[in-house]
Amino acid sequence: MQDEPMLDLAHLGHLELLTPKPDESLRFFVDVLGMTESGRQGDSVYLRGWDDYERHSLKLTAAKQPGMGHMAFRARSPQALERRVAALKGTGYDIGWTDGDLGHGPAFLCRDPDGHVVELYYDTEWYAAPPELKPALKNQAQRFPARGVNVRRLDHLNCLASDIRENRLFFERYLGCRLTEQIVLNDGTEAGMWMTLTNKSYDFAYTRDHTGAKGRFHHLTYALDSREEILRAADIFLEAGVPIESGPHKHAVQQTFFLYVYEPGGNRVEVCNAGARLILAPDWKPIVWTEEERKKGQAWGMKTVESFHTYGTPPVEGHP
Amino acid sequence: MQDEPMLDLAHLGHLELLTPKPDESLRFFVDVLGMTESGRQGDSVYLRGWDDYERHSLKLTAAKQPGMGHMAFRARSPQALERRVAALKGTGYDIGWTDGDLGHGPAFLCRDPDGHVVELYYDTEWYAAPPELKPALKNQAQRFPARGVNVRRLDHLNCLASDIRENRLFFERYLGCRLTEQIVLNDGTEAGMWMTLTNKSYDFAYTRDHTGAKGRFHHLTYALDSREEILRAADIFLEAGVPIESGPHKHAVQQTFFLYVYEPGGNRVEVCNAGARLILAPDWKPIVWTEEERKKGQAWGMKTVESFHTYGTPPVEGHP
Amino acid sequence: MQDEPMLDLAHLGHLELLTPKPDESLRFFVDVLGMTESGRQGDSVYLRGWDDYERHSLKLTAAKQPGMGHMAFRARSPQALERRVAALKGTGYDIGWTDGDLGHGPAFLCRDPDGHVVELYYDTEWYAAPPELKPALKNQAQRFPARGVNVRRLDHLNCLASDIRENRLFFERYLGCRLTEQIVLNDGTEAGMWMTLTNKSYDFAYTRDHTGAKGRFHHLTYALDSREEILRAADIFLEAGVPIESGPHKHAVQQTFFLYVYEPGGNRVEVCNAGARLILAPDWKPIVWTEEERKKGQAWGMKTVESFHTYGTPPVEGHP
Amino acid sequence: MQDEPMLDLAHLGHLELLTPKPDESLRFFVDVLGMTESGRQGDSVYLRGWDDYERHSLKLTAAKQPGMGHMAFRARSPQALERRVAALKGTGYDIGWTDGDLGHGPAFLCRDPDGHVVELYYDTEWYAAPPELKPALKNQAQRFPARGVNVRRLDHLNCLASDIRENRLFFERYLGCRLTEQIVLNDGTEAGMWMTLTNKSYDFAYTRDHTGAKGRFHHLTYALDSREEILRAADIFLEAGVPIESGPHKHAVQQTFFLYVYEPGGNRVEVCNAGARLILAPDWKPIVWTEEERKKGQAWGMKTVESFHTYGTPPVEGHP
């Protein structure tokens, strides 16, 4: 009889984004994306979408270069967190415990094989809206802002890595993440992976870094309620002078309706909508995309812009 | 330290709907809702939405009266199914094993305290589309039909019950369902409950049956990708002469964007959209709605039509 | 051979709205509806939607009571304006010339049979956006505001009148307005009329005032690009504490997708969307709705709230 | 004082499309686009969208090569038609009267300077829906089909021409069409024109034919109610194996939300949505786009595919 699925991690909780232009990045996330500032500490500002239940889903930190500081997953229970820590200790991937951060309690840090920092935590601070941000309906975390793009909640992130297979095995074995879709080249090389902890079809993705650099970041994504809102977001980005890299269009992989822009610090940011698509099967069989299939472009035939395959943060010289 | 959540059931798999007008009901589900027939056996026709991954999500069975034959939940693993069966045996709620049905393997039957039949199973048949229904994108179960309302997948169902609290305890203790929202009257009586097994904010709901009857059914619901599609569905129902009971409008409870109609057999059918709303917190604290809050009507103020509080299937004389 | 249609008036240009709470009304139109202030003079503030081509489409004037100050139609040419003035002079409906107002040149005033003031003008000031409101695309009047409901342009208005037929004849004979739909009761009484000067299916409507009062106002309406935006507007009104009277729903008459609220001064305000529906036929035959047909309620069956039939501005005691 | 605008033509009524694969083209328009057949005569099938008020908006005619047979404009009155005929006679552009066709009465034919045939008519047959296609709401021409893309009504067409300026002058002087947007190259050459007879921002467009061929056709366009429906149309085209050339995306010119495909006969077909955008100003000043502005690509930055600039029907060898 097959092993039972490991269900210790509940969902992607937040990520830390590094920016060399902290003031401009902050204005982008608050004024254009419509996020709410929910804390400041040191060189960091904490931000949230109106439906994120935790205090924040984005930690924006001033740094010399853009990129991702760390990603953080919330465990399903204290016991589940302990099990993950026990499994990681001594593997060489483990870093160790921290006291936590604004918004959450003690966290265990580790590194994926490509060097990205991954944080695991359970204790968290539920967002308590101040009076002026209290929603009309009590089953909502915060008032709908009616400002800019009005992003709802953190949806997923995408990292770059030299060896996708190695990272897939790490997230499967140690964190219990489930692969839902992947790209496998004709020579058997894994070129992309989409993994989930939830009924969302992915909580994070990894795609290949062709530059030889390590620990780089591709994009973070906030969810909106409809494709119509993504289209309107494109209008708002255009008016605000935010560079649009690609979209709105529909990915063949995961069928995500996407729109990619660059925030002022240089990081790629996506807004997306997936309609009512969910992965409900507990034994989902990963979809494998071939080289030939990927050459067809996006779902409705748009060719992928070159920068999407090469640009990441921090940027690498010669790879725009 | 608190107990860990029980995660043995994965999701609502299908339900059996009884109809005294099997031919007309079938035409409604196929021609108007846009579902696909995927099997016939005995007095039953098996039906599916284009994104349901299992062979069917609806078993439509000829019967003297409308109502629900049974609801079925898929377990997360064979071991998980065994644990649920072990817990149920001898409680008085258990009925026993069946050999299964078209589309799924052996199933364990039980009854909730109000008498509705609940089926648990693990082995299932993944839908294999015939050539003419193969989708263009391999991560989709079936070709988009482009016919009628084009319902995507089974979303949830709603039963009526005399004692909501008793049923809540049954689903929490024996099946590991999690309460996300409820209505509690001023005298402490529970009047409605919304429970989930997934990241959807509910997979089924129970609301009070004021007639004294047992085991009655309120509605089943298919999901569409956008609110715009729900609005278009209203146009299509109007053109097809399908009686619209209520909506499109937005529920305050769960914020579901809803539209209720009656299929020819007399059962209430809903199409809904919830946007990007998901329950990601593993420790979600149930939202409790009071009598006063419910008196405000739906989210945008529409008064709930009386029949919504009284009509169920099978119908009870004197309660239209 | 039939007469040729009279085409002297081009479209509804603006209206003057009276409010006893000018500051709160202004905040509603700017912060909630997302309009832009484009001038002040005396007790009036001039406002515009982001796609109105003239300087303003709404003149908001402080007054003791809510209601409509006047409605204004732009003529198609100077010659066309002269023809309309010549036709009106001496009819008893004519008031006379004014020097114009902020945003437009000399205007001829008249009164409809119910006493509403109607202004005709040709010379107008095209809106010139200041640098911070310049749009990214040069075929757009102003930057998309990304604030609140983001109303696009003035769509239509609705007055109340004791005798609909008399007012219809006035607008047909003297102003060349074309009737597209009407309600005619079983005894032959006309109970509502929808008239147009454009390819929009109506630029204004009149419905019956049962109170015996004269010159009252029912509502003004701004257009949004999609039904999805109307639904989002409902969320925004809910969050802002703006009272929603009715909707979102679809009228049977004209098939308008509507949402009615009250602005702080007491006037009814609508946001609407009509999709791609246009009246292209130059010889459109008016649609006549009977009493029986109107009793069916709105397009999808929602019953019309009572206040919609009785409340107008200024309010009349005993008719809430 | 300036001349008054000429308003003799009301709107684009229909066009005749030539196809070398009449059966496959017919299946495309009926099964995929969701149009309704409303007549047959000779080698032609007559088709309509569900909101076209005339009997047909498309005459599909078997021919050796794809392309446009003729375009047809409905006059605003019999007198208006006579005035246009009087103006055209003897200009060298005039062809003469025909007895009419299925669906409309006597028509006057002429040729634009590039050789496209233009038909003018007034008498028309209003569509009378057979019982099974009667709509639920009497202000609608036909039941919503709920099949395929469900195109609503003919929106516009686009021809190719060697000399845009010459064609612009023809349509302005003889037919009273109004220019709303145009492309003018740095050397003063006009490279594209968008003209209207209505409040729609264009009823037809002409863009440059670089091949030296004459009388060629670029595309015809049907309108849908929302951008969401255009996105769903892309899914439906993908499933049906219809080649998508470009989109969905937003044009900078006219801000049309577009999606271009090829019908089986080789003609380019577009579905579009323009939201609530209308040209209400009777004295609209044409928007002039420069070479530099056009190089920016579409509204949200997508580069225009090469075939869009070169392919037309009938095709010209060496210009795919």
TrEMBL record, chains A, B, C, D:
GO terms for molecular function: catechol 2,3-dioxygenase activity; ferrous iron binding. CDD domains: BphC-JF8_C_like (cd09014), BphC-JF8_N_like (cd09013). Its EC number is 1.13.11.2. Residues 11-123, 153-274 form the VOC domain. InterPro entries: Catechol_2-3_dOase, Glyas_Bleomycin-R_OHBP_Dase, Glyas_Fos-R_dOase_dom, GlyoxalaseI/FosfomycinResist, VOC_core. It is an enzyme of class 1 (oxidoreductase). The keyword Cell division does not apply. Pfam families: Glyoxalase. Coiled coil: none annotated. The keyword Oxidoreductase applies. Keywords: Oxidoreductase, Repeat. PANTHER family: GLYOXALASE FAMILY PROTEIN. This is Catechol 2,3-dioxygenase. It comes from Microvirga aerilata.
